[in-house]
């Protein structure tokens, strides 16, 4: 009989932890990449938009091919239409990256604003279970959404690159923190 250990959050208990130096190197590389991105956030915003466009084109093409592979599953027409929509979206992003960056940034601002309001409401309704953390997170989301939307269209030229740079730096700091985490010994 096979038993499974579900104590690991990702189910990978037998994998060795990366070495200290691998974590440090990865953290420093991510932080360096983050500062590099922050050096020219407008260029990175355009590159990100083009990258998202190509990923959308590839995903849409695969969706269309997948629809033909699995014709008997049902929903063939919907899969083909969805694939065409992905491809068209990608073509627009690649063909007009400046305008597309503006649209993506506007949608991102709306998402931040709406998700922030939802998190504030959840934080209030779960106040006794440390809901203040969710409320604080929601306040940051609303603030980020308002900054993006009130500064639009100028924010459309820098927000995506800025967020990518900040994400890379925070990810790098996370790897550095992981490298210096205290080790626990199994007794």
Automatic annotation (TrEMBL):
Protein name per its UniProtKB record: HdeD protein
Domain of life of the organism encoding this protein: Bacteria
UniProt key word Transmembrane helix: yes
Membrane spanning stretches: 19-39, 46-69, 75-94, 101-124, 130-150, 157-180
InterPro entries (alphabetical): Acid_resist_chaperone_HdeD, DUF308_memb
GO cellular component: plasma membrane
Record's keyword terms, sorted: Membrane, Transmembrane, Transmembrane helix
Cited Pfam families: DUF308
Transmembrane among keywords: yes
Species of the source: Bradyrhizobium valentinum
